[in-house]
Write a structure and sequence with these properties.
Blueprint (H helix, E strand, L loop, with lengths): L8 H4 L19 E6 L2 E2 L3 E2 L6 H10 L4 E5 L2 H4 L3 H8 L6 E4 L5 H10 L3 E5 L5 H13 L3 E6 L2 H9 L4 E5 L11 H7 L7 E5 L5 H9 L4 E4 L1 H4 L4 H9 L2
Parallel strand pairs: 1-4, 1-10, 4-5, 5-6, 6-7, 7-8, 8-9, 9-10
Antiparallel strand pairs: 2-3
Amino acid sequence: MNLPPTRDFGAACKPKLAVKSRSAIAGSGTVKLIAEVKKKSPSKGIIREDFEPVSIAETYVENGAAAISVLTDKHFFAGELAYLRAIREVVDVPLLRKDFTIDPYHIYQARVAGADAILLIVAALTAAQLRTFMDVAESLSLACLVEVHTQEELAIALDVDAQIIGINNRDLRTFHTDIATTFRLREAIPADKIVVSESGIYSHEDVMRLQEAGVQAMLVGESLMRSPDIGEQVRYLLNY
């Protein structure tokens, strides 16, 4: 495929000051923001009525987001692959295609649409599928955000040598969210991995707790999408 090179999603998730241990370096702005473009969720319904994905993405970048997550699942999240294509045209930060990747075709589709990274949910895949999908992604220069929620899922992610591990604070069975999930699992993740905390992050105090735990990046959607001033909420989380 004759496609433009991808942007480095992993590098975008790393703090400018490297975290040398599980205890993050003091100072604001250490945890990088992956800001999510999301209209709807299965548990909350419509999150934002005035949904203009391109404008939202531009606002995210203008106010300090390091990368953008774009929901492309139509059934549960009212997403569209077209949103990813349109956003790729106007921003230069790495883009994550947020969807249920269950077939290699979805990976090729993501690359053609302009994604720089894909989501792989351990709970939805076998270890063999994970390895295969990671190999396909690597062949296309796509990064993989490998998502876990439990110790058992984390063990699988580590066994397949996932480099970017997303800890989902939301239990996909009950939709209950607890940021403590990140703190529990973070301790078992080697220091050379990139750790992304997902869901349940609403305040700068939450961000500071993630920083203290040695988390490199956070994926935030709902608290941004519900804000009447998205840019202001981004700056608040990042302490700008």
